Amino acid sequence: MTAHVAKPRIRMTMRGGQLVPVRNQAYEGGSSGRRMAGKGNVLSGPNMPIAHSLPLLQSRSHNAIRNNPYAGGAKESYVTNLIGTGIKPQWGDAQIQALWDRWVKECDADGIDDFYGLTSLATGSQFEAGEALARFRYRRTSDGLSVPLQVQLIESEHLDPNYNSLLSGRLVKMGIEFDAIGTRTAYHLWRYHPHEQLTAEINRRVPVPADSVVHMYRRTRPGQLRGVPELTSVIVRLYEIDEMQDATLARQKLGQLFGTFVKRKTTADTDDEGPDFGTLVTMPGEAENDPISEFTPGGIHYLEDDEEVSFSTPPDIQSQYTEWLRTELLALAKGAGITYEQLTGDLKGVNYSSIRAGLLEFRRRAEALQAHLIVHQWCRRIAAKWLDVAITSGALRIANYWQRRDDLLAIDWIAPKWAWVDPLKEVTADVMEVRAGFKPRSEAAGERGWSLEQLDAEIDKGNKSAERYSLVLDSDPRTTGKNGALQAAVEALSTEDEENDE
């Protein structure tokens, strides 16, 4: 009796008057044929892969940045281009600005960095671990701070991605607690770093109100709760580049070790008139009958009877190594979000136009990260908390503050100005934009690290110094032009007025 085997049903549809299998009309990328078999077939939400892989991804990212110069350089380039000397606020109120400028020097709970140094450290943490965490630390007014508030930056490992629970109807997912409508209400943080190997009695999770925590990470999918390291997509390449470079170096070192191998003839191979090799010569520290365990550069190694030396012959890729490495580094730079030139410092074949085109694309991405990630998630949160504490502690007195709060927090955050290869073109473009009204002087000053009040005060000081020594500066177009023509005209009019008076 033959067993009956059911054949799979093939879905058919009409096309052009004929029945055609539905699979022939599907997207090729959504098929399960030979070319796409086993590729991305596991369906998952935005958080399950992160919860499963984040601890190991962070560990490998930390290790790569510690030991791989390309990874470390990528982090440095990322931070210096996004933050530079600091993304600074223009409050629009001299009293608030002065208090802020005092507080930035004392804001670090560890007492090491200022606010802009903390921002650089947080951005580096976001690149390396995928996210940055900070806690607001409220201080006593007796502590002598200009505003009784400090910021404590902690590593993201304090927030366990595998901690999930249901506490009295409140969902805790990946260490973050939510209320019934999905609003973050608390972060369950380890009291100490979980990898410090402290006992469970000492190191416990502590729920910290969400209002006291700043969580900065780059979200790439809706519903994503945690961030991943920026090197995630190229972490495998990083380690393979290391292995390839080690193998190439070992091959070159081994090639330099080859010396001379002497094989002695046996008695059966020689006759009475044959050559006599005499006494066996050994290398210093080498016993006569010891087997060869290592090579020495230029050494003479004697082989025993019936011994031969053979070497493996791996394919010669030396001529292709440079191009292979360049291709890998191009992919690494793309995955890290920077340019190849920034990653390697290799400017071979680069001209002004090509480097400018590459930098323009990078700077569009950097400006988006500055606005949506650093300013919105980090700077804005800290500035709002600082202003509230300054008012409630009495460090600032502003009438009708709570009615005016939104207007006062409408801050212009100015990032450092991008420096071009040709400073003359850069300054000329700034002058034209300011004179045409496309850019306020405050923004141009802020890009150079000045507040407008500081800049005007310094210019006024310079003008007074110039008057003392009878100098005329061309920074004021009302008194002189770049070629001195306006100055000469003013002097001529003054001379004419003096002659008429006489």
Automatic annotation (TrEMBL):
Database matches in InterPro entries: Phage_lambda_portal
NCBIfam families associated with the record: portal_lambda
Protein's UniProt name: Phage portal protein
